[in-house]
Design goal:
By secondary structure, the chain is of the alpha+beta class. It has 4 domains: about 180 residues, Triger factor/SurA peptide-binding fold; about 130 residues, no CATH class; about 120 residues; about 100 residues, Chitinase A, domain 3 (Roll). It is about 50% helix and about 20% strand. Strands 5, 18, 19, 20 and 21 form a 5-stranded antiparallel β-sheet that branches. Strands 14-7-16-15 form a 4-stranded antiparallel β-sheet. The protein has a 4-stranded antiparallel β-sheet with strand order 10-9-12-11. Helix 10 crosses helix 21 and helix 21 packs antiparallel against helix 22. The longest helix has about 35 residues. The protein is flat, with a radius of gyration of 36 Å.
Length: about 625
Amino acid sequence: MLQHIRENLTGTFALVILGVIGFSFIFFGLNYSFIGSTYAAKVDGEEVSPGAFEARYRDAIQANPQLASADGPLRDQIRRQLLDQLIVDQLIENYLNDRGYRISDEQVMRRIQETPDFQQNGVFDMETYRLTIAAQGRTPTDYEALLRRSMRQEQLQLAIAATALVTPAEYRRYLNLFAEQRVVTVASIAEDDVAATIAITDDMITAYYEDNPTLYQLPESADIEYIELRRDEVAEQVEVSEDEIRALYDGSRDRYLQDEQRQARHILVLFGDDEATAEATANEIRARVDAGESFEELAAELSADTLTAQQGGDFGPQSRDWFEPELASEIFSMNAGELAGPVRSQFGFHVLRLDQVLEPGPLPYDQVRAELLGELRENEADALYLDLERRVSDAMFDLSDMQAIGETVGLEVKTIAGFTRAGGGEIGNNQAAIDAVFDELVLTGGQISEIVELDANSAVVFKVAQYNEPVRQPLADVRDQVEAALRSQQAETIMVDRAEQMLAAVNGGEDFGVAADAAGMNLAEPQLVGRADQTIDQSLLFEVFAAGKPTPESPVVGRVRNLQGGYSVYSLDAVLPGRPESIPLSQRDQGKLQLAQQSGFGDLQAFVKSLYDEADIVINEDVVTAGGLF
């Protein structure tokens, strides 16, 4: 639950886009096993709809396809966690509504204009804004509503974080630790240092190979034949006539009923730094239009909306909810041919002209033709694909030879050699395919598999041509690997022995340098290191800063395995506290902010958990445990 809080309360644009993606699935691909259920959960009387829940589940599967294979208790657990996320969202919304958290139109517009995704060369660009949100299937009105919601959640986060305190003592302690330095002397040994002392004989290689019978195994595998059915290849065969498209349009006009639309043009003057200047400029443009200058030419020359400026300011036919509220009110009160403005919106001032009023009714044929064509092609492809599956199934019933089946249905028989339980070839690691091939009746029983759905657009039939049992590689083939393993083992033993020898000598009172020389370790000069030092092995650095403080009479010594292999013996000789004044002011400020954020986020977690514990939450178990989407 609390992980989702972190994801849901940071990154405004990412939040809104995530909401956009989720919304697009609310009405599609729903699970109908819970028809009649009006809610997935109730949070203090507010309902979380089954559609919103299934949309979140589908989003999770799209982001992590492996979740689709979860079943039974694991699947239910995943769905409960996702519903828990939605419950947390609703808890936060309820709290914000009760406390009157509000975001003004000016705040929303400022956030939009400051969003880098909507800028060109660091400046807000209307065309980029519209194209970006249109790519997510959103209108400006929809996007701004989602943004307003996420900004309200930010208010809560900032309000709680603002109460987090970092005391001067805590802050100075942090700075002292951050800038702390330690004096350390290191003696190291690497595998190359002991390579000359290692001797590997043939008898040792043979003994190691025989003593480790489970090593150097080639896994079981199968040489397979398969026939693949692909929906995209079937779709290429589909041809649709104009008469078919027209007939579908005539028979389904009710699907394309539209509200009243209006086709208007505008010339936009952004606020910039001075709203009064922007309004004066808009009035000058209106005067030029009134004086007879071409609206289209002025829009192309002067409008800040570069997307519509290329079309003479033309918005194209749009319904009321497509426009910002201020523009919608004006445009839908005008008559065709009228001028209006300047009209103030959240972005600037608009000079408007209404060109056409489109009455409610079905969309024109030309506007929906492409959609109808796609629908007919998809339906025909579905029918052909199902027919192909049926023909393959019939052929499998009558024939046992893959080549004969392929010739009967007109599909190529492909092969993969050495297909293992990890997959292989063009099939990759598809688990459904692996399960089918390694079914005992298929693997060793000579049977052809059932038709296996690899994904929504392809299916495969398998037959094992040859089963290859697990076999151990001959010693001659792996001799170099065995020798390398023995050398590594011996080197490890020698390095550990020498490091332990040196450590014992130092602990016994011998000088660090003398002990290093006697153990054959490479001694380095004492060095001063900081917590972020990248010049020494990071495992060694971690151990040095994890060690307790030494005294002048008693340094702290220890042994550590290095990240790159080899070992180091270290002597921590002194600890120098950090001096806050040596840290640049910007870094000090950043450190204080990070401490406050950490404290604030902990407070936020506790706060949301308290909301959760105190809320009246009802979960619809029928929805949680309902059958899968697919």
